[in-house]
Amino acid sequence: MRLSQMLFNTLRDDPAEAEIPSHKLLVRAGYIRRIGSGLYAYLPLMWRVLQKVSQIVREEMNATGAQECLLPQLQPSDLWQESGRWDTYTKAEGIMFALQDRQKRELGLGPTHEEVITAIARDMIRSYRQLPVHLYQIQTKFRDEIRPRFGLMRGREFIMKDGYSFHTDRESLQQTYQDMDRAYRNMLRRCGLKFQPVQADSGAIGGGVSQEFMVLAEAGEDEVLYTEDSQYAANVEKAVSLPADAQPSPFTEYKKVETPNTNTIATLCEALGCDATNTVKNVLYQTVYDSGMTVLVLVSIRGDQEVNEVKLTNELTALAPEYGAKAVLAIAVPDPEAQSKWAAKPLPLGYIDPGLGDEYISQQENLAPKFLRLVDRTAVDLQNFATGANETGYHVMGANWGEQFVLPDRIVDVRTAKAGDRAVHDPTQILQTARGIEVGHIFQLGTKYSEAMNATFTSEQGEELPCFMGCYGVGVSRLAQAAVEQSYDKNGIIWPVAIAPYTVIICVPNITDSQQMDVAEKLYQDLQQAGIEVLLDDRKERAGVKFKDADLIGIPYRLVTGRAIKSGKVECVERKTLASEEVAIDDVVSVLQDRIQTALKA
């Protein structure tokens, strides 16, 4: 491609809306253009990158026996109501774009395709002889993000590979899950990325087992906790650990004490002269289920720990049937305005005790009349602890479960694991932290969707059984930007060879110099004939502008037909290291072929 003929221009200044380096660089280098909030046009250079990523994904998927298809982006609400996720996606998470057609039928723009693929399986799969089967697609998805940000990282429209497998039993599902684990590792290695597979929460997709693939980068939105022995890695939403041991309690007797201005654990510990591990804090949540029922949840946890709201949501989702529901629509710490709608009398916020009475709840329709009481495991074994006295400005100390307070029946793990904690698999290993960008996620769904939507098969024994399902996603456009976030310098992008839009760029310092142009044209033709993708910068620009643009757009190798051609050579610059050497014109093709092959194998 000749750069003079390409829709291409670069910016010298960072765009105002861009917050992280990869977003700034992709806009500045002419890869993407913002069309609206969370909406971007993929310009010619970016489309080439996305095609290369897609091809790597496609090759690895095909190698496992998966079959490519294409599913509709527009999905009828009926299918989502069958699975029970319509309200979850349109009201709770609120990420689905929902609309009505002219016949007043409700539709959604697909953020994911579990319902559609399950409906297909229901219609087409009859016998165990047809299983296992694995279908995938690469296409545009939609999410109504509350705050679109970071360019392609969190947009409202994005390109994704999503695959779905169907099986006769869990063993078959686990085999495909392992195949996908290997395929995803191959994809990311081939794309030239440093990554970390981690245990993950399944979220609204569902299923008991899932794994994320994180590209490690400082701008990552996710925190990854891992051990140096490489035996454990998990998203902080999922991570488990052993907290620090509680310090011996300094309290020897139970009593109520005045503690003004101590509505935080830090101020309480300072006032009482104790450690945070000697305290129990009680956090109040307001939960709304899809049945319309509101439930007030009181979580008691050791004072030095924080509630992990993802883990808490999972616990509350498991309890949904008790409230005539399937899913949690919303969970939040109620502010004074929210409390005013259900509190029978003012709550002593900051001073609540574990036995906060149900009389604080006014009796009204669709409001559970009693607190749902949960206690985190970190608080269960505490003795002689300090906690709220249920009176503003007062706490009690020397309290014990079974004496002053009833230990809740529901003991849960809802604490947030953190760097510095001990690992569960080996307490000598200490959790470390890193930032990551999620670019892939694989799930063992089990029979969640097949049971809800009646996707069954007839077994060899003649039984009608629900299909076991797996789900496997790769963010194609997100992966492309993650590659930039992981590899750039002060001059611009540094693309891995495998997914660079072009492998070589030829810069002609002076296009009016016939010798420079003749050499450039010869190399341009020779490289193309050798199967090397090449960009020829034949623009009427100064040499300095061309060099800056070449660095900014991040093409792996730059050839310069400058002064060296008088001695039968051209300058060859490697973008990654900026190392420069002169190469004989006749040797350029073979030298680059060797370097490209070496880079692809690295």
Summary, kept brief:
The chain is of the alpha+beta class and 602 residues long.
Largest beta-sheet characterization: 9 strands, mixed
What is the typical, i.e. mean, pLDDT?
94
Percentage of residues in DSSP E strands: 25-35%
How does the helix and strand content classify structurally? alpha+beta
Q: Helical amount among residues, as a percent range? A: 25-40%
General shape: globular
Q: Give the class-level CATH name of the largest domain.
A: Alpha Beta
Span between termini: 27 Å
How many strand units? 31
CATH topology of the largest domain: BirA Bifunctional Protein, domain 2
Unreliable runs, pLDDT <50, ≥5 residues?
Answer: none
The number of domains is 3
CATH homology-level superfamily of the largest domain: Bira Bifunctional Protein, Domain 2
Question: What's the architecture of the largest domain, going by CATH?
Answer: 2-Layer Sandwich
Radius of gyration: 29 Å
* Separate helix tally: 15
Description:
Residues 33-496 form the Aminoacyl-transfer RNA synthetases class-II family profile domain. It is found in: Cytoplasm. The protein has 602 residues and is of the alpha+beta class. It has three domains: 3-73 and 110-240 and 433-484, 2-Layer Sandwich (BirA Bifunctional Protein, domain 2); 255-412, Alpha-Beta Complex (YbaK protein); 502-601, Anticodon-binding domain (Rossmann fold). It is built from 15 helices and 31 strands. Strands 3, 7, 8, 9, 10, 11, 12, 21 and 24 form a nine-stranded mixed β-sheet that branches. The model has no long low-confidence stretch (mean pLDDT 94).
